[in-house]
């Protein structure tokens, strides 16, 4: 091939160009949105984020860290059999399990929120009853079923909760759900409505216990003014700065053994600002993880 | 017809599927935008809001109330003779008068702000000098005329003020108008520039007097970052949470005998976030009204 | 309810406001797109078509017929369990079967092309080996499986062909597929590449035999210049007039016992022109069917 | 002002920068769309066309003529009182009359089609029973009234026909209307359905009679594949080349005493291709007129 | 020309219709974006801002001042040779120098940020070592070169700093850059990361010294929720109100001898809200300048 | 890295996944648009085409050939110094020269049309006076300079013509240009206005002479109804089928030693149909080349 200047960085996420073997963090995409009930399109998030991530810098003035000083591998996207939900979750689970087995941290880019269940299953296989989940979201995601379907973006935290057992999940920013979901949350999880209050205390508590934590960020926890590019915009959310601060604290302070960032839907992001936010949150998350 | 599962809820606004006779609140659309001077399209708001409202939940965690526990009827949209403004206002007035006559509360979805005049006329016929108006807006809407036309979205509050008499209208959030409009406002109405300061005191005052109040919400009172989907975006507005809180307080605490939510323009709402806001404000407004 | 002028026509497709009992044709929507591999969104087609259909006239100067002279019932949309493909197909099949049982003609609005399989199954139950299919499409839709999934928009005609047996399906306008699909088509179906040549002869032949025909129109048979609003635009298609003429001839001349119009994806139809085309094709199809 | 290179051409239409006194053709905009029943926005057409016209060349290889060799004045846009339809038409009529009085040819850019009535009234005042109209459109525009309103985009040719008397109007390309409109057209006008057949004969006939002709081009006569940027797209229209040829023939061969180009709606023209077409048609029209 | 009501205001920015001779402030556009590395389109900003500015009022209730009471001239846009960057900067420099020579204040509408260098050069020619710069931005713009190019939107403040010398530039709101850029800033300029803290003190200091100040506002200093319409959205910015307050304080309190507002990219402003913000900031800036 | 199913095909163009050494054709992107005078954005074409190309099939039923049977290498995109036009052309020239040197055929994806000059220079270095160019375009591209700049998308064919000498270039489909450009074309090149007439004769002639031919396809040769996604839409172009047929004939029948496909501007391609066309033309071009 001609010896010349070629842009070779575009296929991977900003600064995630280490080799697999040397990396302690592995990014991968799960472009799945088949159970989305309102407006699909999150399957395009991983690809769009990779392309637009290069509009950001690798250096974070917030953390004074640089992705060029880290070792992160971008695996690309999983090839998922749209229309066969259980099989999709198995592929995600197996893939995450491979990464965890080598003591690397998988960071998944959704896709709809259901993909989290695959990642959580992989972690539960390894960590069992120790596993905890921190969940940022606008929605409870605690339905028992949705139009008769048990595996759905609207049921995903319910399924996780059933797997892990009671009081293992902390939900933050929640401002939408059926009444019974809020009641279920109070009984089986710990729910913080509307904002991130209580997060600092939780971090102290979990830090002390040093338990393995799965961290799932549904980006619609942000206010739609900040993040319009999502399938189900829910007014009344938190600000960008609050989310960024929280992500840095959670990933920098806790034993995060896997994480995901889900529900960017590029179709509804005409300006690209939502994609930029998703990318910057992921950059800060990766930098915080790699600084541990 | 085949006995089967059909989505029958889409034509009405979320949870507004009671019978007319049993309902104490009646929602209806006034899809009119013919006097809009800058960018038309608010006529599409009622139809778009009905469709997208089903992306929200019927339950409000803010008020701990559920639309499934209310009796609200959605009348559909008025058929309005575009191009004959006076006739349009008559149709709105007559329709609102019918609802008021049966001691139900009409809640109108605009359309441009001029439709408010039809609703106010119907209320003035019944309540006369007792009638008061609370007006949320970015714009004064107090011009004497607009390009020689007296019935316009830019004159609507002036016309209401002339009908009701001096000092019957409180304006909040106002940040745009000609200089003479601000002076007129100070003399004939009560104007609160830029935000909702003073609203709590007003609520106390009006509550004591127990006067009938017409509540008109021009959604462009919100900052364009929150609500870009409107014909005349005016930077410097209030946040979503402030508006939601205010709507709940006004509708939950006062003798609101009619209300409207106007100026959503779906053309400029590529992401659907503005429509989601309009729907959620209406949901909270309806829940607060029905909780009285 | 107030005795007044309300737009009551919007929830149904243009002119399809007869009672179920008196109707010989039943329109219904199948808003499903979960197996779409490239760009989802066809689930929004039925709802968007109903709303925009009122921009057309009920009268066709092409056929000199008027929908106001017909008896057509619009059933609304099926509520489909996204994420459970087999169940979705069962619901469609059962619903179509109910309509067919009463000797009415079901006309389905997709949704992705897979929904056709539900309709064809219902017809095969009634008509067995007599059943024929006329298929307009850009794509062969003859894959054996897609990413390991057998029920997919890319396999639907293969599944139909396996159900009906060899040489029961005529495919027109086909210009995209894997090589083996074109070979399969030649062996098991009758394939007309690129355009509608041969349709007139087929109509004569089938007319004489008076066999029951299922007519499925994938709108991407049209050139993307004419119909950009679809998930997988495939350049090199036919013109609008050719499709309209063919629809009138097929529906006016043959024993069509069920039909569908699929693959409009409103997300990619910024101008609304593709939706207008889908609506007009459906209007002409319904008028031709009702004129028999 | 600093002596420097400033782009001073943008406010006028491409090449229309002569002085008023020396010009034989006057372009002006009528940004009115208040009676538009389906989707408004044509008011933005004159401004958008002026801006985008500079993407074309002043030279036409079709006519081998150049706008730089012509004397055309662009008057700018009329300031129209939105919401007072009759007053809008008076302003247009008066303005066109001023131009005609000085034996210049007014060429109006709409706006919705109703603006034509203002121009036709001005011409009828001068030319009386001699006046003829050539009308290109997808729609009959022959309703007696629309939602009870007599002055509407859907009634404009009916109003013109009533003013001029029977058999003075030739309609081409018509493919949409109520049944009674087609019947009215046959009786009172001359209607050519679907295409421009018969135009050549008409040109011969009118040329010989040397009668003054008003030429009105509703751009939706074009197929929506060619011209999606319009409020009411009607599939089945003519091609760009047919329209361009016809415009050159009509304007080059007949005694055109006024003309208009209407119904571009930039909102639905994401790519700008429809605006480019409107501009090029106007360029060819102006060049053909100026070549007489 | 006919004596009639014509909208003659559209080609100039809202209220900037004074004669050149009588004006103390001159607005002009620099529609250049050729070095934009991520997403071009800022060249359209001046033209779009002029058109949309008329959706605002001339009166500011914040400053209680009215553009109708000022004397401001809008020069139009410079004609710039795209593709020849150095020549573009020369044209800007010469044009600004002409205005400055007559003791008028040039206010430039970008275009990309590189255009600032032209304006700063003109000011430096006149004011030499006294010249100071206040710089609002999300990005440091301090690269030494970008893809081997020294004149770039990403190097513009570096070039200005090299021209003026050390410690003459104050940067506010900065939240993105390479690590070395932040270090360079600390050494050669004064940098205020993330927000506008320190601005009040700076204003006091500069006011006392009465030094001539060039004020450059890169609108992406705003949070993308507020201002999505820009080429490189960078989450974590300031609010609209903070920017407006700061602009009024800087322009009202200091010896501003030139200013610019850059980096609006209308392509990414589907709703027009970002353009409205750019226009309102410019209105407040002009009113504050004219009130000195 | 985990042994699992990963989508690894996205970064390259559909089916172009051979090794460099074994390939006879090399695709590369030249994402440059800095001289674009009207609407920039073509720099995004290569990246968008690669992503969307996977919505097509590798098999062409037109040529009965499959990309899976070819050896084509996709080099990725050149990293180009925006703002330094001459340097950009050098990089393109050097890169193309490397490929040509190894007797491979470079196929470049633009970018704006100016990139062609880089490719042509590389070919002229090798083939000298034997080199011929076939040029499909809506525009003459024969200006002497554009706003004082000699290297511009509007001058590119003039520069090529000056390099090769008279009567070496055949231009097809041309329908826009200044008058003097058309005259220059007649004198120095061979110009075929409006369509592709004369192409068959030319192919015979060149085939016999067996001269090396550079083939440059400006996609705006297509009618904007077919291909709206371009910066300067020019109505009156050719159909998709005509272009596809011509591409197959030129590339299958002649000694094409380099080719390019330029001027797709994804910003103006909301539906993705223009990108699909660009991809399909490139697929057919590659298949025809590889079939020689």
From TrEMBL, chains A, B, C, D, E, F:
Co-factor(s): Mn(2+)
GO annotation terms (biological process): putrescine biosynthetic process from arginine, via agmatine
The keyword Metal-binding appears for this protein: yes
Annotated cofactor note: Binds 2 manganese ions per subunit.
PROSITE patterns: ARGINASE_1, ARGINASE_2
SUPFAM superfamilies the record matches: Arginase/deacetylase (SSF52768)
Pfam families named among the record's database cross-references: Arginase (PF00491)
Keywords: Hydrolase, Manganese, Metal-binding
List of residues binding Mn(2+): 113, 137, 139, 141, 218, 220
UniProt GO molecular function: agmatinase activity; metal ion binding
Family: Belongs to the arginase family. Agmatinase subfamily.
Annotated protein name in UniProt: Agmatinase
Naturally occurring in which organism (per UniProt): Monoglobus pectinilyticus
